[in-house]
Amino acid sequence: MSEGPPDVILVRAAQSGDAASLGALLERHRARMLALAVGILGHGPQAEDAVQDACLIAVRRVGELRDPSAARAWLLMIVTNACRAQLRRPTMAAPTDANEVLDAPTPDTVERAIEQSALLDWLWTALERLSEPLRLVVILRYFSGADSYEAIAALCGVPVGTVRSRLNAAKANLAEELLSTAAQQHVHPGGLHNRHGLQIAEAMTAFERDGDQRALADAFAPDLGFVMFDRVERSGLENFAAALAHDYDDGLTVRPIRMVTSSDITVLEAWLDSPPENPLHCPPALTQIYHHPNGPTRRLVSHYAPREPRPAPTATQPQPGCRS
User: pTM of the prediction?
Assistant: First the structure.
């Protein structure tokens, strides 16, 4: 018989937002979960991966467990699904596709499932303990629309294979961090850290409205490095402001969709409304990464949604001219 509170008590506490109780539940059944994974996949990293996947799914979906007394069967079912996902992959496909495993039990998106969970702060506490490169790929993959390997690779400036390996490492580390931080106090970075996101949003809105570069001074470093539509590395806040002003003067309107902020990274997604007289001025949407370690944004990288096919320009038709 297991020591400590019964599973029913742990599940109900976890569903009320008690991360320590869910951590205790996962620790109690982890050996059995691993044994099941080994029985299906054999000894090796695939079995460990399946258990890690199951832990992440449990964090997201403990609120969906209607019968707390069935916690063990529920966890083993999740492990079984994760193992089946492993078996569906080609044998030589090295890093795992985290999206496939995490979405196996239900069609919910990761973002919606996590945001509806009372354990959100626990997840973000664990995320903050990942290195910046690992945390960035997780945020892009599960909290943004730029979630394809190709889009993440473009935003991070690394090959697709590196994106896959970072996601695999992040998933493994995150499972461990969730367990190790279960009993700690959890503070979502929407407090102190979110000031960076608010500062960026306010600065960009003020500059679009007034065209005064001073509006950007507090949110961006003077030697800001940035990559925009043409994928060329540039530097200098003045150059960045000039590129934005060019598009705003042409009639471009930016409509923010979503902003996700961690301690040193902010991801912003927005619709781009081109001027009516030049509907192909810019792609329809973009995702931007703002890197702000210990202060204002020092680097910004943009990724754009694909343009719709456009007809050949005529002598009177405006040319696409997006710079931002």
Answer: 0.61
